[in-house]
Amino acid sequence: MALYLLYESAFGYALFQVYRLDEIGQNTEAVRNSVSDLNHFGKVVQLTAFHPFESALDALNQCNSVSKGLMTDELRSFLELNLSKVKEGKKPKFSVGVAEPKLGSHIFEATKIHARDLKLGDLEKAQLGLGHSYSRAKVKFNVNRIDNMVIQGIFLLDTFDKDINSFSMRVREWYSWHFPELVKIVNDNYLYARVAKLIEDKSKLSEEHIPALTDILRDEGKAK
């Protein structure tokens, strides 16, 4: 029996056909290969039909109906147009997987199309496969430099260090116009920024600030 999956998105209704689901489901290694490789995944799940919503209002109405487990005329037309009509008294040669159980019941009552709930993990496998496929399409790997990602990561860290040092020097430079003595008291850039934020206006500095300064500097003598 053929298996289709109905997917309701913000853009419209999509119908996917699943191939060799039972065969793959019995083999963990095959499942892993199917969702991590674009070629394998494309052979397991293929887009059969797509129906876009006409407007944002239409999308809202359709999604509200789906959440309530109701099949709209638009969804019914979409299914009947892309699936073989089930003859009265005959067993269908396909079934449709849906995420909303109530919607599946309504579809069966109205069209006699056998709709069943997706098993736990089916949606996650499909999403994982799509994520891998999308990443492979967007990220350009250089086969001659397999360490490119490491190099880029190190470069990014170096850039962060330079930026932090630059900002720290700017804080020291600007705040020293207000409180020049602080530069000689606090050498560490991070602690200097914290102390400057605590003090703000030097004219308001008092004995009450000593405990807070001690917590930052870990040195009561320096805080005094």
Describe this structure in a few short sentences.
The protein has 224 residues and is of the alpha/beta class. The chain contains 12 helices and 5 strands.
Notes on the protein architecture:
With 224 residues, the protein is α/β, with parallel strands linked by helices. It has twelve helices and five strands. It folds into two domains: 137 residues, no CATH class; 76 residues, Helix Hairpins (Orthogonal Bundle). One of its GO terms (cellular component) is small-subunit processome. This is Nucleolar protein 56.
Features:
5-stranded mixed sheet, alpha/beta, elongated, 12 helices, 224 residues, Nop56/Nop58, 2 domains, 14% strand, ribosome biogenesis, NOP58/56_N
> What is the element string, with H for helices and E for strands?
EEHHHEHHEHEHHHHHH
In helices, the fraction of residues equals 55-70%
Question: For the largest beta sheet, what order do the strands appear in spatially?
Answer: 3-2-1-4-5
Count of the separate structural domains: 2
Structural class, by secondary structure, is alpha/beta
- Please count the beta strands (DSSP E, at least 2 residues each): 5
